[in-house]
Amino acid sequence: MEAVYGNVKSKNPVCQLPVSNPPASIKFNRRCYLSVIIFMVMLSVLLLAGLIVFSLFYGDSVRNLPEISDSKDNVTEHLNAVIERLNSRLTEATKKLMEFKQGKTGCPAEWIRFGSSCYFFSGESKFWDAARKFCRAREADLVVINSNDENTFVSALKKESVWIGLSDEASEGTWKWVDGSSLTLEFWRHGQPDNHDDRYGEENCGHIRNGFPGQWNDLTCYTSLQFICEKD
Ligand SMILES: [Ca+2]
Ligand SMILES: [Ca+2]
Ligand SMILES: [Ca+2]
After folding, report:
1. Which of 6, 51, 127, 151 is the 20 to 30 Å CA partner of 220?
2. Where is the chain membrane-spanning (predicted)?
3. Confidence band (pLDDT; 50, 70, 90) for 16?
């Protein structure tokens, strides 16, 4: 066992003073401590270098704080500009979609295309004059029926009685459309026009009768009926 410990000690002579040879021991110790000092100096240099690098990095970060803040402001400004552009494009796309929808029929919203005209079927009832005024305010007029198909179309979409643009108010018995044209086609119900209403006097305005699709009757103009507007 002593031999073993002896071998171990001889393999690790860290600044150890061999007693047997004092001069050699002094020389050895000088080299040993010189190595330790060099090692300590190198360690100090490394630590100092680390501190310098750290301070440089930290110093750069501190110096860059205003730039980072500026960058944040720039990003926010850029994002706001992008959002504004997107909103603008969304509005434009919505407008184009509405124009496209309208363009498909060529008629305003709530108006219906048939042939070359657009038609508005009212929900409310008015006297004949007020109904015409309503249509004219929308660059239209009460419907002028020019064909059998048009008469069928406007009659099919309303079960109620509706005013059409027909009147003989200017000259009794001479029926005219609101565009000044005379009748070329007539769809009077049998026995009409009779210009007679026991209660209200003359009947000078034309309408399509409820219960008799496509058949016309003359009625006093001061009756509240639904109505149909037409425009090109
Ligand atoms: Ca027409
Ligand atoms: Ca009449
Ligand atoms: Ca009548």
Report:
1. 151
2. 32-58
3. low
Domain ranges of the chain: 1-105, 112-231
Nearest to 103 by CA among 120, 118, 91, 122: 118
Q: From CA 193, how far away is CA 204, in angstroms rounded? A: 9
188 CA → ligand 2 middle, Å: 13
Residues 6+ apart with CB under 8 A from 29: 15, 17
195: CA distance to ligand 1 center in Å? 24
Q: Which ligand is nearest to the CA of 219?
A: 3
Record the pTM: 0.58
Residue 179 has pLDDT above 90, yes or no: yes
Taking residue 189's Cβ as centre, other Cβ atoms within 10 Å add up to 15
Q: Which ligand is nearest to the Cα of residue 218, counting in written order?
A: 3
